Amino acid sequence: MRRSPWATLAVLALAQFIVVLDVTIVNVALPHIQADLNFSADSLQWVINAYTLLFGGFLLLGGRMADLLGPRRVFVAELLLFGVTSLVAGLSNSPEFLIAARAVQGLGGALLSPAALAILTMTFAHGRERNIAMGVWGGLAGLGGTLGVVAGGVLVDSLSWQWIFFVNVPIVIALVAVIPVFVRDVRHASGRRTFDTLGAVLGTAGLMAIVYGVVRSEPSGWGSFEVSGVLTAGVVLLVGFVVVERRSAAPLVPLRLFRSRALSVSGGALALNGAAFLSMFFLTAIYLQQVRGDSALEAGVHFLPMGGAAIVGAALASQLVQRVGTRTVQLAGAVLSVIGLLLLSQADATGSYVSELLPGLIVFGFGILGVGVPGQITAVSEVRPQEAGAASGVVNAMYQVGGALGLAIVTTLSITHTTHELARGATQQHALESGFERGLLVASLFAVANVLLTLASPQLQPTSSQLTEAAAAA
To answer: What is the pTM of this model?
Structure first.
């Protein structure tokens, strides 16, 4: 039976839509999850970080699995895993249960996205049709991120926080039902392919250990045996990861890629970008509801201008890089991110949303994808064509992992400052507001480091096809 490639694209884009939706939809539900399941202030971030770390840590393994087992088979299996873990997350009755469900959900997303992208690239021939398909793919993914905060607010206010997870289940069931009809079983050319499962486990476990150590530093202290032991274990695991990757015949992360200055610099810049973005999103979602008294829906609506600015920023970045070059656009985006965070950090809870928060959200939104689009282009500019996919996977994983580590650092310092203010006799609202300001100032340091790192990035004039693929990846 002949299948329409555009029907295939619709199925793939909807699947990617819910994966991206799940990254942002959770943020506005955090205060409700914290109250209902008795999360501590320092452990709440794991609702985000468990998903992000597993997503970033296993993103590269997902591409290998799609190569070896066939992308449609992996796509269906991981779509089912994503749906089941969404159901389990919604049924969670303890912090530990929800965090575990979110971790496995992140694993499902990490294996699903590369399989979907592999099907897309093998369904559409290189050229105009693939460029259009990649544009639709990237656009719907961006829309998922923007609408997630509003959808989360609607579900939390009208039903309960559990429905931000339950909503995935009927979508997954419908997608699995139509996949045999609309998605053909495309395969790569046969050849020897192996899993680097050990590398994925070592890398992800090492990063999770370091994040956990940073989180525990606030209640236990940096000099405690727990924190020092966990951080040491994390370093040992990451060293083991590097050793395994150096010896592996099919490494998840080909270390030779980092000989490219363009990839190293862009990967680092995107990691810092992720740290600034996830920290801002997490802190602002809490601030809007716990300090300013927004409902979940109001908080979601208040994030919308930032999402709209990000979409416009990505479109402008795609146009400008051909005229003024990648480094100039990336630098402008990084500077805007710094300005946006500094504006947000000066917000006064007694002032209006329009005057206190809206300018910072819009400026930050413009800047965040101004970094992403040229960063993706630069990252793959010096690698061989056959390794472009691996390079793109590496920098995307660095973005996710950088976001998780940055969120852990910023949240820990913000909580420490809030606790200190409470001990000095400040009101809870004042302490939370002060902690929010301190957290955003720390996040702005990530953005400043991004500006400095971007100065070392090469200046490129990309082609139209590079722009389309970079915008979809960003």
So the answer is: 0.78
